[in-house]
Write a sequence for this structure.
């Protein structure tokens, strides 16, 4: 079967889930998309077989922060459903797709953070930006108006904060974040844990936005919808909730570089 040279498979293998999109190289369109938990990764082969029914993609661009075993498993599945596809395992470098990596050691920056920053820059060019990706961990990173990734912060994600507190504090219950609270001053222990964790997440994002002088804050990740209502941002600062900011970055690379990738 001939490969579709205009379609790229984008993969974001995070700490909890593996997300993917079949992207059109010439536009912002995603032709198909899906996800699977690591424990259910075999489902990806089924999803891909359906998505590639007409023709498999010629290229794959994958960001993986889940380790070597996950990479090996993905390589095996890709060999079965997209044989012959050229696969690039995205890694942070000094400069790519119009973004300069200002990390002291550019290669040390997590590839998901670099991709998210590229995606944020593509969505809001020539503006000082904060991009907060709220998943298993929460990362809050700054990009300046010239297109330089300055650096950022990493903190436990909302769920990790709550579960750590419950696990390590006697008699506190395990809770699942998800309830929007009417007040940060909770009148029961479960909500007090959630209020504290939400406030810590929101506070980090708010502080980063003020310190950076950002004019736009891009929020992404599974916990973003819980954190967004807690944010109190400076006047004039635009808050944008964007799904899958890492894959938006991978798609921006594809569109910027085409066959160079």
């Amino acid at each position: 079967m001939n490969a579709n040279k205009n379609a790229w498979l984008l993969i974001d293998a995070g700490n909890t889930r593996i997300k993917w999109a079949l992207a059109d190289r010439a536009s912002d369109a995603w032709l198909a998309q899906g996800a699977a938990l690591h424990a259910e990764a075999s489902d990806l082969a089924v999803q891909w077989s359906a998505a590639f029914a007409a023709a498999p993609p010629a290229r794959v661009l994958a960001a993986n922060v889940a380790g070597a075993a996950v990479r090996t498993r993905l390589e095996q599945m890709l060999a079965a459903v997209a044989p012959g596809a050229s696969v690039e395992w995205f890694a942070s470098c000094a400069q790519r797709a119009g973004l300069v990596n200002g990390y002291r050691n550019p290669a040390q920056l997590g590839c998901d953070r670099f991709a998210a920053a590229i995606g944020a820059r593509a969505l809001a060019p020539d503006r000082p930006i904060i991009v907060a990706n709220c998943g298993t961990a929460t990362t809050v990173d700054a990009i300046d108006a010239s297109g330089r990734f300055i650096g950022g912060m990493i903190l436990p994600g909302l769920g990790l904060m709550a579960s750590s507190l419950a696990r390590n504090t006697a008699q506190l219950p395990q809770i699942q974040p998800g309830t929007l609270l009417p007040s940060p001053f909770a009148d029961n222990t479960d909500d007090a844990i959630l209020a504290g964790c939400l406030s810590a997440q929101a506070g980090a994002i708010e502080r980063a936005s003020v310190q950076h002088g950002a004019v736009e804050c891009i929020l992404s990740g599974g916990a973003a919808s819980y954190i967004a209502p807690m944010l109190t941002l400076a006047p004039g600062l635009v808050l944008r909730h964007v799904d899958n900011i890492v894959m938006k970055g991978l798609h921006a690379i594809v569109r910027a570089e085409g066959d160079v990738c």
About this structure: The longest helix spans residues 189-212. The radius of gyration is 19 Å. The first strand starts at residue 4 and ends at 13.
